[in-house]
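Students often ask why we bother encoding 3D structure as a string. The short answer is that it lets us treat folding as translation between two languages. Here is a chain of 186 residues written in the first language.
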Amino acid sequence: MDMQQKNQIYEIEEKNIKIARLASQAFNTGDISKVHEFVSPDYINRVSLGFAGIDDTSNISNQFRDIIKSRSSLKGPDEFIDTIKSLRDAFVDLHYEEHEIIACKDKVITFVTVSGKHVGNFFSIPPTGRNFTYEAVHVFRIVDNKIVEHSAVRDDLSFMMQLGLVCAATEEYESLFQAWKGSKSK
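And here it is in the second language, the structure alphabet:
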């Protein structure tokens, strides 16, 4: 690979970082007016596709069953916008703080801390009024200056603990569990 090719790849990676940051800005501000400029009509959110894998909904409330049905069929900017609206309705002061961002060709990886306060329904989970902070890694694939795919690895256990939805199986291990996850329930 010659220097010109390396420079082209570097320029693409820098542009892709800017595009991934537009996604974070949209989550932080709630401004969805430019989503169509950086999210492809073919966009797939691999995190939301988890809903599509739920075949047996007999033990799930009707409200959550409806959410599964509507979320599993969304893609493109509509999915991205729905995710922003859903999260911002559920969490006041929602903020994604970037700690690191790395690009390699068509992929951008961000390491963030997510924080907020649970004040609205979160996919059928009623508001707890609790603050939360957890870490996540988001992976974006970008083609032709638009995000076409998103996946994430989140610390959902810490998040659910802070919301008061899960705890250690026995009181004996609660303090160890809390310390291990660094939980700061408020």
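Translate back mentally: The CA atoms of residues 20 and 140 lie 7 Å apart. Keep this in mind for the problem set.
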